[in-house]
Amino acid sequence: MRPCSRRRLCALRMGTRRSRLVGRALGRPRGRCHRAQHGPVCDGFLADALLSPTEADSVAALCYHWVVAKKISVRHSWNTAMKSILLPVDQSEQMASALETAWRLASLFEGTVEGVALRPAFAEIVAPDPIVAVTIPPADWNETEFCRTVRQAFDTFAAEHPASQGGGARFRWRGGSAIEDSTLGTLGRVYDATLLSRPGSRGARMTALEAALFDSGRPVLMAPPKPPKSFGETVLIHWNASTETARAILLAMPILRKARRVSLIAIEGHLSPGPNIKDAVGHLQANGVTATEKTVSKQPPGEAILAEAAAIGADLLIKGAYTQSRLRQMIFGGATSHILGAAEIPVFFSH
Prior knowledge:
By secondary structure, the chain is of the alpha/beta class. It folds into 2 domains: 3-79; 84-350, Rossmann fold, CATH 3.40.50.12370. The protein has helices spanning 17-25, 35-38, 53-79, 95-109, 143-160, 181-187, 206-215, 243-251, 253-258, 277-286, 301-312, 326-332, 335-342, and strands at residues 84-89, 112-117, 124-127, 132-135, 170-173, 193-197, 220-223, 234-238, 261-267, 291-296, 316-320, 347-350. A 10-stranded mixed β-sheet has the order 5-2-1-6-7-12-11-8-9-10, with helices on both faces. A two-stranded antiparallel sheet has the order 3-4. α7 (206-215) links the parallel β6 and β7 (220-223).
């Protein structure tokens, strides 16, 4: 059969989506075809095939729907992933656990852990007139040396945990000077989550955690004192029907969809007015997460939550933070305060 007698489908300079998609479906290379070999000159995809116009339209329609489905799939995957994790790096003893926890979280979604130097707390001098507070670093403070030291620790851990060819977590250092606790909350607004170690003398400062929790609008993942062996496989959710808990579940949904086991616990006498725990289980099921539920008798909620986490072998706790006010928890105690001081597993907080 002579070439001129064949129905040669070429991606002409029509500029249409259909011609380009047909060329892609037929596996032709992208580039310029020459008139001497292929007839018309085009800048698109070359689709040289024995297709009738009707067949070409069918192939184009199939290709179009495939591309639309692909875009929806990509968009859905981005909506159900946590791709960027902010990790403030300091010289505390629990920094190793924070690095390990951040790596495990990022590995779930092939995300990026971005490190930033977090400046130590310095004494403040308050002037009465006008009332201002000025932070005075010690005379021997060398910020350049501090940033170099914490970055070296970050880079060393990153080198020991390289991303595989198929994916995995990546590490990146955010340049610039060290940031303060108050800046951490605003910076966290452009990340999917901020990760800090458990507050205390050997871990993060409470001011840093509260800044990230209240000012970023994003969740905070609290690393335990010791590096976790696993993350997000067995998850416990504290359900108390509060707005904070509902938000925590929503933000943690990407992790919940990947978990092997999800359980909810409610404590009698410590529930806000709202949906019961069975309603919460139904909500998770509607989002593709199978969960079990348990309600325990009235007892201190913080202790009951951590006891249940230990009983089921949970490696992640999801909790709405400060359902009661911070002042009330400081005076009377509360579940959040207890967990902040006693949790031995990662805790996903949201306010």
